[in-house]
Design goal:
Shape: elongated
Oligomer: single chain
Helix content: 55-70%
Strand content: 5-15%
Largest sheet: 3 strands, mixed
Length: 222
């Protein structure tokens, strides 16, 4: 029987490949484009953003660099949208990506746009809709993380239950896709050698059981 043992490093390598395939196959929950654009409109139509933009346009020559006065325009393609409690530790948030990098004057983030849904320049109906969508995104992402963890646990449990590559492939043939090529080649070599050995015994018309009995009996008698 061909036997290629599964060491700890090999198990981890196979597990990483299996998880990478999962991340490719399972699409991460995202915010729909309409809601993304509604959020962005709420940012750029905010009075502070409009005021700073108009000021810079009107006084660009005299105040070419507002950062000298502590003002910084944030440019990023990521938005961290907070919701829930306005102050303290109760606020929750979800991050999503914009189609392109965009500039904002009202963002609090250092490397991305960061704003609370309560500060968006939207109607109350739009604000409620955005809040519902972002909370739904949070729930879907939470479920997605749980599903991914369950998949990882199953893969890990399968790998830990097998001592050899053959046991793994017998238990779950599709795991072959995650096995390093050199291990598959080694398994193929061993299978080929065993097949050739069987062919030689058949050609010589060897009764393997008879030889085994003779060996065992001779040891007992001696």
């Amino acid at each position: 029987m061909a036997s290629v043992r599964l060491g700890r490093d090999t198990r981890r390598q196979i597990e990483r490949a299996a998880v990478k395939a999962y991340d490719t196959a399972v699409v991460e929950p995202k915010l729909d484009n309409e809601t993304i654009e509604t959020v962005w409109r709420g940012i750029v139509e905010h009075p502070s953003h409009v005021a700073f933009s108009d000021f810079l346009t009107a006084h660009k020559t005299a105040f070419g660099c507002l950062t000298d006065f502590g003002f910084t325009m944030r440019k990023s393609n990521k938005v961290n949208l907070r919701y829930g409690t306005l102050r303290g530790q109760g606020a929750e948030s979800e991050e999503f990506e914009l189609p392109t990098e965009r500039e904002s004057w009202i963002s609090r983030g250092y490397y991305h746009h960061d704003v609370h849904v309560a500060y968006l320049a939207l109607t109350e109906v739009e604000r409620l809709d955005v809040t519902e969508k972002i909370m739904d995104l949070a729930e879907r992402r939470k479920q997605a993380r749980t599903d991914r963890q369950n998949y990882e646990r199953q893969v890990n449990a399968l790998l830990e239950s097998c001592n050899t590559l053959k046991q793994l492939l017998d238990a779950q043939p599709s795991m072959k896709e995650f096995v390093p090529d050199e291990m598959l080649r080694e398994l193929h070599k061993k299978v080929t050698r065993e097949s050739q050995a069987r062919e030689r015994r058949e050609i010589a018309q060897v009764d393997g059981d008879l030889i085994n009995r003779v060996v065992l009996t001779s040891k007992l008698v001696a």
